[in-house]
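Q: Methionine-R-sulfoxide reductase B1, please. Structure only.
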Amino acid sequence: MSFCSFFGGEVFQNHFDPGVYVCAKCGYELFSSRSKYAHSSPWPAFTETIHADSVAKHPEHNRPEALKVSCGKCGNGLGHEFLNDGPKKGQSRF
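A: Structure for Methionine-R-sulfoxide reductase B1:
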């Protein structure tokens, strides 16, 4: 499964089949379907990455509650990590 198809709506928002979400640009493993959960945003939501280096995180200018997230291998932009916005207290949402 390729992650982040921003054109015309996200096709994986309500997709819960077992599998691995990979970078659309280089194919690097990003998220497992086991860490995916239903969320009100129009994008798929995950609580954790597959590998410690699956994503790179950078502070978002003027948004202390969010980090800019990109593929840890090729740098492809993936969106944000929203701090303390996961399904459980203290968890983040990718």
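A: Brief note, in case it's useful. Residues 1-8 have pLDDT under 50 and may be disordered.
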